[in-house]
Write a structure and sequence with these properties.
The chain is α+β, with helices and mostly antiparallel strands and about 270 residues long. It is built from eight helices and nine strands. About 40% of the residues are buried.
Length: about 270
């Protein structure tokens, strides 16, 4: 895929083919929403990085976020937005060219998650092999297994690609970025990024999704390795994982804890 086309489709547009008996019944019934296909539990989205099985707590708490401010006059909706950096290239389905900074790490995480082939195990493996740290033993197989289980849940063969029946789009709305204090790593070299995202479908007729997934959460841990950010799930990094407060766009506590809405360069 060309860089120009990738830039236009950075909010990954993935397609669903051969939905099988379960999903075909949903389509015939007129509802092809993501929530319907994933049984309304939001659990069909594979975590792309460190375990994100625990949702952020619903009350304010101490944060390892670099925000460090007691300011409660702003919210993620009203406060300054985080402007993501654009990738300078794409390789193996992964955005590349991000530098060594917290915002670059957040940008890499967002582009990764929006472009991740969460319903195509073959494409997902290609992306994971390009993005995962070589030190994260078993990580690629673990995540590909999650994709295959999801395919089975919606009535697809466990392994396979996609075609142009129904298109899915993932859009990250906000991020929470934390530099993890890992012994032996230089400051800022290991970063955890939580993301609040929406995922919706577009049917063959172009009609909007009637039941999109909204306000979903996932997290990744990224390590600066060589000249790029790479996904890792190594225990010595995961043990420093920080669970932020809940993301709510109108919450001053979410702002104070470090949640920032994102905007993209044109």
């Amino acid at each position: 895929m060309s860089q120009g086309k990738d830039a236009k489709t950075r909010r990954a547009r993935l397609t669903l083919a051969g939905l099988g008996v379960l999903a075909a019944a949903v389509l015939i019934g007129g509802g092809y929403g993501v929530a319907v296909l994933l049984h309304d539990d939001g659990g069909g989205t594979p975590a792309a990085g460190a375990p994100a099985s625990t949702a952020p707590s619903a009350h304010p708490s101490g944060s390892a976020s670099p925000s460090g401010s007691g300011d409660v006059s702003k919210t993620p909706e009203t406060g300054p937005k985080m402007r993501l950096f654009k990738p300078t290239g794409h390789a193996d389905g992964v955005a590349t060219g991000f530098k060594y900074s917290a915002i670059d790490a957040a940008s890499a995480a967002v582009y990764w998650w929006e472009e991740y082939a969460w319903l195509d195990d073959q494409k997902a493996r290609q992306q994971l092999e390009a993005m995962a740290s070589p030190d994260a033993a078993g990580y690629v197989d673990q995540e590909v297994s999650k994709v295959r289980k999801l395919r089975e849940q919606v009535g697809l063969p466990s392994s396979g690609g996609t075609t142009s029946s129904v298109t899915f789009t993932t859009t990250v709305q906000a991020v929470h970025v934390t530099s993890l204090p890992v012994e032996g790593e230089k400051p800022g070299a290991v970063v955890e990024v939580w993301m609040s995202y929406d995922r919706y479908a577009t049917g063959p007729d172009g009609a909007p999704d009637k039941e999109p997934l909204k306000d979903e959460l996932t997290s990744v841990i990224l390590r600066w390795q060589g000249d790029r950010w790479r996904l890792t799930n190594q225990p010595n990094y995961v043990k420093h994982s920080h669970t932020p407060v809940s993301y709510l766009p109108d919450s001053p506590y979410a702002w104070r804890d470090g949640w920032r809405q994102v905007i993209r360069e044109d």
